[in-house]
Amino acid sequence: MSFVETYRGVITQADCDHLGHMNAARYVGLCGDAVIALQTMWGVTPDDVRNGRRISFAVVRMEGDFKAEVQVGEAVVMKTAVLEVGGKSMLLRHQLVRADGVIAFDSRFRAVLFDLVNRRAAEIPPEVRAKAEAMMET
Q: Can you give 81-138 as a three-state secondary structure string?
């Protein structure tokens, strides 16, 4: 399994909750940002979403483990691996890693290619599938 970087940033006060660490909703939001980065790598561009093919990946199932706290001011990197590619969906693994190398969050997301016009799952185009499958092999 090979990971690619899908997000890099610094955690702000707005990302944190009343307990002083990054809010669970922000972890999920970063994973969502990672999926957008991935689909762009695969050739599903913002124009495809808005005007072109009118497709985008949508998360339909998620499972995650919070392993270590992330606090305001910490630099983090999201790494993502493609675990499997199906006809209409993919299984992704996201890991949020702190600057000290500690994995703070480890998750699996099932993402389905969504037809934004018909509002249902769609077959993954061959060129998108090929790029996603190539990520599994590196």
A: EEEEECCCEEEEEEEEEECCCCEEEEEEEEEEEEECCCCEECCCCHHHHHHHHHHHHC
